[in-house]
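re: that chain from earlier
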Amino acid sequence: MLNRCLAILLLVALIGSSLSRVFVYAGFEANQSYIAKVLCENKSRPWMHCNGRCYLMKKLKEATEKEKKQQERDNLNRVVTSFFQEPFRMVFTDATVLQAQQAAFPSYRYCYSSSFIETIFRPPKTV
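^ sequence. v structure.
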């Protein structure tokens, strides 16, 4: 239950931060008469037929500035990791054998004998 409530709360907070202009419009439509009578900056000039739209524009401007500041903070917090590595090249060269060094190697001698020593090796006896 607690996890579900927490998930819903985080979802609303996430959606609320991206839809701040929609909430400003909804608040204006819900309280338009109060805004026009009390909060309107042009209530002394009724021929402009503002009806509180000046207050709406001011709030929308504040909301867009707040979103821009939030995006700038998000961009500052983002860590960009770049990995640059030079390509590895494997170069093969031809083997060269010098004639002077060839004579320095001893010749191969075959030293293996297949006869075993009977004094050391005694096969098992049958009873």
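The helical segments are 2-18, 20-30, 32-39, 53-77, 99-102.
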